[in-house]
């Protein structure tokens, strides 16, 4: 029999879930309006013919891919609408390994923003610390090129807090709870974009 005992493991699981829920509750009470502001920026970008780009490292890379898929595929089969142009900058293994091998890892996102971004696009970067160098460099290039910038971070916002147009700070210093909240925030932004762009039958509210 492995230790600790089963009751201790159950208590650990309960505590994690409750703390995660409390983190989301604190964000909901203090900062939910930020999600609507960002959703409006993304919807305006799409209406103007722009695209959304997303980036992050590790779990935040997976989150970026997850959220991009919700736009280009579908958030829910119960609401069928046209595809929306979103791109995760974490998925091209040939580019990532070529750039990383030749120039280092710091420029893997900024180089793609330089190549693919245009004024009016939106870049969302996720970093629990707010200090991930490759995401910071991507934001710097995006700002110079006229993209709207959004950071999803932990409680302090790190260096991103003063660099981006919108810094969405989760009130926690736990990487796990920050990332759990980021996923919920991302889903809310997608769903709100859908409400802004589409009628209840999935048709466009405005002409493309």
Task: Describe the overall structure.
The chain has 208 residues and is an alpha/beta fold. The chain has a single domain, classed as Rossmann fold, CATH 3.40.50. Helices cover 53% and strands 11% of the residues. The chain is built from six helices and five strands. A five-stranded parallel β-sheet has the order 2-1-3-4-5, with helices on both faces. The chain is globular, with a radius of gyration of 18 Å.
Distance between the termini: 63 Å
Instruction: Tell me the name of the CATH class.
Output: Alpha Beta
Unreliable runs:
none
Strand content of the residues, in percent? 5-15%
Q: Could you tell me the number of beta strands?
A: 5
Q: Helicity range of the residues?
A: 40-55%
Any idea what the shape is?
globular
CATH topology: Rossmann fold
CATH architecture: 3-Layer(aba) Sandwich
Compute the CA-based radius of gyration: 18 Å
CATH superfamily: Glucose-6-phosphate isomerase like protein, domain 1
For the record, the count of structural domains works out to 1
Please give the count of helices. Answer: 6
Helix/strand-derived category reads alpha/beta
């Amino acid at each position: 029999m492995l230790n600790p005992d089963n009751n201790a493991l159950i208590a650990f699981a309960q505590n994690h879930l409750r703390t995660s829920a409390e983190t989301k509750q604190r964000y909901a009470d203090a900062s939910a309006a930020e999600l609507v502001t960002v959703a409006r920026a993304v919807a305006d970008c799409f209406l103007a013919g722009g695209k959304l780009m997303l980036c992050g490292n590790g779990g935040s890379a997976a989150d970026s891919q997850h959220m991009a898929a919700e736009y280009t595929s579908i958030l829910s089969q119960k609401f069928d609408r046209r595809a929306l142009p979103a791109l995760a900058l974490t998925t091209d293994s040939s580019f990532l390994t070529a750039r990383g091998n030749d120039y280092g890892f710091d420029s893997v996102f900024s180089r793609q923003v330089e190549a693919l971004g245009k004024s009016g696009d939106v870049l969302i970067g996720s970093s629990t610390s707010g200090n991930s160098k490759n995401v910071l460099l991507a934001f710097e290039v995006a700002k110079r090129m006229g993209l709207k910038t959004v950071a999803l971070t932990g409680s302090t916002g790190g260096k991103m807090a003063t660099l981006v147009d919108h810094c969405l700070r989760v009130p926690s210093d736990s990487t796990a709870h920050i990332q759990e909240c980021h996923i919920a925030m991302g889903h809310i932004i997608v769903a709100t974009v859908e409400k802004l762009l589409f009628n209840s039958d999935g048709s466009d509210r405005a002409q493309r």
